[in-house]
Amino acid sequence: MGAFLAAFFRRILVVVGAIVAASATFAAEPPLAGCYERVYDAAHLAEHKGQSVMRARLAVDATKFGDHAGKKNPFVADAMLLLWVRGKDKSFDSIGACTAQGQRLACEGSLSAAEASTCRTKQDGIRQCRIDPGEAGSFQVEPKPDGVLVSIPQRLELLQSPYDGGPYLNFSSSNAENRAFLLKRVVCQ
Fold this sequence. Notes:
By secondary structure, this protein is of the alpha+beta class. An 8-stranded antiparallel barrel has the order 1-2-3-4-5-7-8-11. It contains 2 helices and 11 strands, in the order αβαββββββββββ.
C-alpha cells in the first residue's frame, strides 16, 4: 500500500508541476502574443462598399490585471484593438482583458460612460452617445496561418481617445462587412 501511495503522490506532483509551469508560461507569453495589422486597399474597399473599417491593428500582451491563477477562467492576456473607419482620422479602440479558450482568446470590450436613453440604438456605425456601462461587448482572436482572425461574436463598442467623451463606434455580429478582420503579424511599434 505504501508503494502505491508514493506512486500516486508522485503523479499528483507531476500534474501540479505541469499546471504551475503552464501558468508561468501564460504569465510570460500569453497565447497569440504580438502585433497584427491590416490596411484595406482601395480595390478591396470598392468591392466591399458596406465595410467601414479601412485599417485594423491588434496588440496582444501579458495581462496587467493581476494574478488570476487558480480561477476558473483567468485573464491571460490584454488585447488592444484599434480600428480606423472611412471619414475619420483617429482610431476607435477597445482595450480588453482576455481569457484563453483553447487556441482562441475571448476579450472583453472597454467599458464606457453611460448613454442617455434617447441615444440608445443597436444600429452599427458612429454614435455621439454611449452604451450603458458594463455592456461594451467583446471580441475574439483566433490563430490563422499568417496571423489572426479578429471577430465580433455579438457586438462591440469601440471608443475614440481621450475615451471620456465624444463619439464611439458600434459593431454587431449581424453586419457581415464589419464583424471579422483577418490580420497579418507585424513588428510591434
